[in-house]
Amino acid sequence: MIDLSDVHAGYGRIEVLRGVSLNVPRGTVTALLGPNGAGKSTLVKVLSGQLRATAGHVHLGGVHVNDAPPDELARAGLCTIPEGRAIFPNLTVAENLRLMRGDADLVYARFPKLKARHRQLAGSMSGGEQQMLAFSRALITDPAVVVIDELSMGLAPVIVAELYEVVKELAAGGVTMLIVEQFAETASAVADQVVVMTHGEISEDNDLASVYFGGTS
Amino acid sequence: MTALLAYTIFGLVTGGAYAVVAGGLVLTYSTSKVFNVGHGAIGMVMAFLYWELAENRGLPQWLALLIVVGVCAPLFGLLIERFVMRRLAGAPIGITLVAGVGVLVGLIGVAQVIWPPQARPVRPFLDQLGVHIGQSFVSGHDLVTLVCAVLVAAGLYLLLNRTRTGLAMRACVDAPELAALYGTRPHRLSAMSWAIGSALAALGGILLTPVVQLDYVTMTLLVITAYTAALVGRLRSLPWTFVGALGLGLVQSYAVAYLPSSQFWISFRAAIPALLLFVVLLAMPQSPLRIGGVRGSRGVAVPTGVATGVGAGLFAGVVVVLALLVDSVVAGQLALALVFGIVLLSMVLLTGYGGVVSLGQFTFVGVGAVTVARLGSTSVFSLLLGALVAAAVGALIALIALRVSGLYLALATLGFAQLMDKLVLQSPIAFGVRGSLQVPRLVESASAQLLVAAGVFALVGAGVLAVRRGRLGRRMIAVKDSSAACATLGMNVRWIRVWVFSLSAAIAGLAGGLFAQLRETVAASDFQLFNNLPLLLFAVIAGVTSVSGAALGGLLLMLLPVLQSGFPALAGVAVVLLGVAAAGLARDPNGLVSWFFRAWSWRRA
Amino acid sequence: MSTLLVEGVTVRFGEVIAVNDVSLSVDVGVTGLIGPNGAGKTTLFDVISGLRRPSAGRVVLDDLDITARGPHQRSRLGVARTFQRLEVFGSLTVWENVVVALESRRRSSRLATGLLERVGIAEFASNQADTVPTGAARLLELARALATDPCLLLLDEPSSGLDRAETDAFGELLRELVGEGRSVVLVEHDMDLVMGYCDQVHVLNLGQLLTSGTPSEIRAHEGVREAYLG
User: Fold this and answer.
1) Is B2-258 a domain of CATH 2.60.40?
2) Contact between C145 and B484 using a beta-carbon 8 Å cutoff
3) Chain pair A-B, CB pairs under 8 angstroms
4) Which of A160, B260, B295, B347 is the most exposed place for a label (fewest CB within 10 A)?
């Protein structure tokens, strides 16, 4: 469903992705792990259409999308949740949900905390609640592909667990997913495929502990 | 008591018209992140068009209003968005400002070509109607204005809060990249906001015509009032913008009523919007040091000391030959071009190297000119004193305005220029009651003037290049690229900026002194606020990053009025072309000269 | 010889608490500051270098409370830093980048070439700084910070963008810097570097100090493994 072949990309003359090939089969979950600066977020930007690949090919659902702008990809069923708090802080929770064009009640049933705060400005909520709101888009817009960058960044374990419950449900429903994490065995646990990235390339070495703690552990 | 009521109503009426204009400005800025300096000019052209339809062609007023506000203005907004502004997405603030100035100057050119100067009375709306409130009379036109303001406020509120499109617009203000990931169409939203923004500029312009008269420049600059109102809402909040506009209208109205009517206070009243602009800017929080991301720009290559010497020698040779060959009229014109070139050198330093966009640079020229004129005798000493006074004024404005940066700083310089314009340059303080002063020449003959101007230009140009190669130049550019890194390396960022600002003002002041003695008579009308805008435009078109760009820009600045007096229609066309050129060239701040040098264009790494 | 004390520092962004009541000390040697993304490491650097005012707490350098001082004043007291998101002066050449820093501390610009050689990027000296590879740009930031002759050096992910050999050379440079009596604080994800070169390691998680200790203590700490591996 997601198919990258020998993708190069970067900013200005600085190349961040140095020939990345990655295939996520339809209806499966792939966890993309790796240290900071490995190029994971850049990969997400290329997938979502925010950054153009300088070489290589990007296919989504068999369609060549190297030149497609982000809004077009989004309307075609790609749900990208970028790094950080992917919400509109100065809109209320309810307005954020209205922008998603989905059934808000589904979200309220799943995350009752958001229902209680639906008239509040989204930016005034806690980090965990903001991430729940951002994540809601994957839940209610019936996407074909979901790409999440740094799902658990800066969140308490309880909330991470709650969000991964939703990931499991979506996976069970047949949604193709790419989950980018910096440090996570939680992600590996739900994934059909674990890929590790270092220095802008897909690493051969899939042992996480050795990536983070070196050969010594 | 009834007088107070009457002035309150007048204030609300004027404020209502400001609110309509400012509302459009905020809408376009917040959805497209391009601050439209030409907003007032759109209102001006549309008001002229309304006059054409309603007064010249005799259409019913309501039909003319409908055609202009409902059809022509939105279409025009769409065109501007599609062909100018869309190409500027993500460009630095200086570049979007120049494109806006290009639109502005171009529109003035269009208006001058189509509607040559003459008196154009415009009938107010519903002039047979009106209400008496106590002893004061509220005209039908006032009522229409108030109703329009209320309708616009309500309409914008409904659009932004009750419709999907409005919600998407607000989302774009909050996080444009995320909005695209949500599937909203950024271009469509931006196009719509420009259409609505232009329509509001047109409506505001037409409503204000009976008050301010149809005039190219006055109406265009009326937009400074709209900036002030928009800044009250931090360029984002429409409700606060409306509050700001109404407040401004009230303050102006009360000022007319209760301030003494001596000469000074009359000037003071005219300066109120600019004063309030300053107050609002000062109330803003200090802009934080930006962290994150490499910034860099490619200027044209900086010549070495030797190359500068050779260049200056060649330049001197050419000028000496010219001085011998041409007649005194042409020599005088060339001298003027070089004096303008010196003004542009001050912008090479400030804008080209320092990255600070100033919309008030011509004001320092005025300060230098007034100083020399007031001294009554022209010598090297008096010219330097002019530069010094300009530098002092520059340091003062820098200390006040440099707490903000980018767009806000550019607007602060424009506010400062208006303040100086109303309180000093256009008042008897500067040029006396007759509005003009005689200045003795430094050297008598025109060819000697040419040699003097060329000498100073060469000296200042070499000086600017020496600054660029030296310690201060490196620091200026470092501050432009990353002020946060500069601070952590022990530099006092603020003082570096103040220093650059005053140095640049000193150069402009020196040029002002030269200008005064070259002209022999200088008048308030030589230093009008509006002159600041073409200055920035010519600087950028010719090339604001190089000395040769400054020389070329000076030549163009000198030629424009010559063209205007010789072939008025052609001059209008030239101005339109300039506007188009600016919009097209805006992405390349190295300007036309860089084409000659085949230098690398502006890039972002 | 320099000692930095961070006492009860809290940073709030609206409702979100990025750094929550963190107290730690830094002595001569290499101090590691590690933790998952979003743990508050860079924010803490911003507080120490003066780019951000903490909502609460104090920063003390050699018994002097510097909480209210601006970044340029702290630089004069010997604090220097590099940036996670690069802040090189892109319009200037690599050499000019270092010269600017030298001049700001009134040191001779002739030292620039030596500094570039020391961090190993002399070959790029005349390149415009926004055109060099990420690794070289990081080393340039290091050279620029060293140009101010700091006693406390804050390095934010210096090794990202470096290859293995460059990372090793960087480690040796760290040892040299400590030998000159400087204190170095290292935010780093390369655990070999952290474990191999740090004398003391502080672990941040979710804005709070999780634990402090020697590298071997940290490696054995259950909570740290959990925070990293989830």
Assistant:
1) no
2) no
3) 62
4) B260
